[in-house]
Specification:
By secondary structure, the protein is mostly beta strands. It has three domains: 61 residues, SH3 type barrels, CATH 2.30.30; 61 residues, OB fold (Dihydrolipoamide Acetyltransferase, E2P), CATH 2.40.50; 57 residues, OB fold (Dihydrolipoamide Acetyltransferase, E2P). The protein contains no helices and 16 strands. The strands form three sheets. It has a six-stranded antiparallel beta sheet, with no helix packed on it. A five-stranded antiparallel beta sheet has the order 9-8-7-10-11, with no helix packed on it. Strands 14-13-12-15-16 form a five-stranded antiparallel beta sheet, with no helix packed on it. The chain is flat.
Length: 187
């Protein structure tokens, strides 16, 4: 059990029969009235965010979570399949548990967050940046470079992103997995 003074970013709590991670929080002490804590919560099961306010001193059910490294193997009708890099056990994770799963490449290592007591996978986190090769893109035209023009590029995983006109097929790109944006060419 924890109370509102123990709240920190990344803390997982059991609230309304779901597990939430605290994304943001703010302790507020108005000039008149009781202090309270304003929080922004993200559901570990659905990915939805909502805001909640608690009176200072309110007790919360903290959930212990574990991060484990897994290697991506393949995708089938059951979802994404991973292998534990230490025990070689395999698990399947549904599509809704992985945000931006289109950037997963075979052999890539990710972290899966588990509920410690129930040994239940809650969500999977991709690395912040991945390096992927462009498999198809239209050629850029000379003269279009005066503006910040972008074109579509298909990556080796099948994901389609916007890239600058000078990017060509076969180039290795650094991609931000949180936003799906092109960052730079790999060096």
């Amino acid at each position: 059990m924890a109370n509102t003074s123990d709240i920190r970013n990344g803390m997982c709590i059991d609230y309304n029969n779901d597990i939430y991670v605290i994304v943001e929080f703010q302790h507020v002490k108005p000039g008149k009235g009781n202090a309270f804590v304003r929080t922004k919560l993200k559901s570990m099961t659905t990915g939805r965010t909502n805001e909640n306010t608690w009176v200072a001193g309110h007790t919360l059910n903290e959930v212990r979570v574990e991060r484990r490294k897994f290697q991506y193997l393949y995708k089938d009708e059951a979802g994404f399949n991973f292998m534990n890099t230490e025990t070689f056990d395999q698990i399947s994770v549904s599509d809704k548990m992985i945000e931006n799963g289109e950037f997963l490449k075979e052999g890539m290592e990710i972290e899966i967050i588990f509920h410690a007591e129930k040994d239940l996978p809650l969500t999977a986190e991709l690395p912040q940046h991945v390096y992927l090769t462009v498999t198809y893109t239209e050629p850029g035209f000379k003269g279009n470079t005066a503006t910040n023009a972008m074109k579509n590029a298909t990556l080796e995983t099948g994901a389609v992103i916007k890239v600058p006109l000078f990017i060509e097929e076969g180039e290795l790109l650094k991609i931000d997995t949180r936003t799906g944006e092109y960052l730079e060419r790999a060096k």
